[in-house]
Amino acid sequence: MTKPQFPEILRKYVDGPGWDVIAEQDLDLEFYEEWQDDWMSPWGLDDEAQTMLWSFAQEGAGGRVCLWTYDDQPVEFAPVVHIDSEGSCSMLAGNIAEFIALTVVGLDPFGIAFSSGAPEAEPPTEVGEQFLADWNLEVPDSVSKLLEAAEEAHPDIEEWVFSHVDH
User: Fold this and answer.
1) In what helix (H) or strand (E) does residue 54 lie, and over which residues does it extend?
2) Alpha-helix runs per DSSP H in 16-142
């Protein structure tokens, strides 16, 4: 698979309100302006995995946020997954639009991934709310339901990653 084009919604978010939302919501998240290709070797992922995981953000401890383009899914429909610096994996959202909506309401994606229950959303910041309106996105009404739907719609990310670690 060739490198997919960086999603327009993500580019607009990073170039627009993304940094303000992160600061205002106090999120431990750093977005990239393009795909990061050099992160997978410490994880020992095989060549196939490296053609399906597209990192677009990082959290403070070094974990990566990726679009997972298994089965040749277009990036705008690919689920968003987290692979932490210790190798644990989790589903964060069903697609990039859902992920952005979660950050707009202040939900730290890594807190979501590793908490026993979904945290409560904060009211969106004005700049974040405007971004959602501009892209015709809605504030998630239930974080738990959003995560459950993402997990039901896609294969087990942890099982998939572990099957793609070079032994």
Assistant:
1) strand 53-58
2) 18-25, 47-50, 96-104, 109-114, 126-134
Q: Which amino acid is at 143?
A: V
Q: How is residue 53 written in tokens?
A: 């995981």
Tokens matching residue 167: 């032994």
Query: The whole model's pTM is what?
Result: 0.86
pLDDT digits (tens, 9 = 90+) for 99-146: 998 888 777 666 665 554 555 666 777 888 888 899 998 877 777 788
Residue 109 CB contacts under 8 Å (≥ 6 apart), including other chains: 27, 29, 59, 65, 80, 82, 92, 93, 99, 102, 103
Start-to-end Cα distance in the chain: 23
- Sign of torsion over alpha carbons 3, 32, 97, 114: positive
Hey, what amino acid is at 154?
A: H
Q: Give residue 26's region: left, alpha or beta (phi > 0; psi -120 to 50).
A: left
Return the SS3 of 77. helix
The CA R_g of the chain, rounded to the nearest whole Å, is 15
Q: How far is CA 100 from the centre of its chain?
A: 8
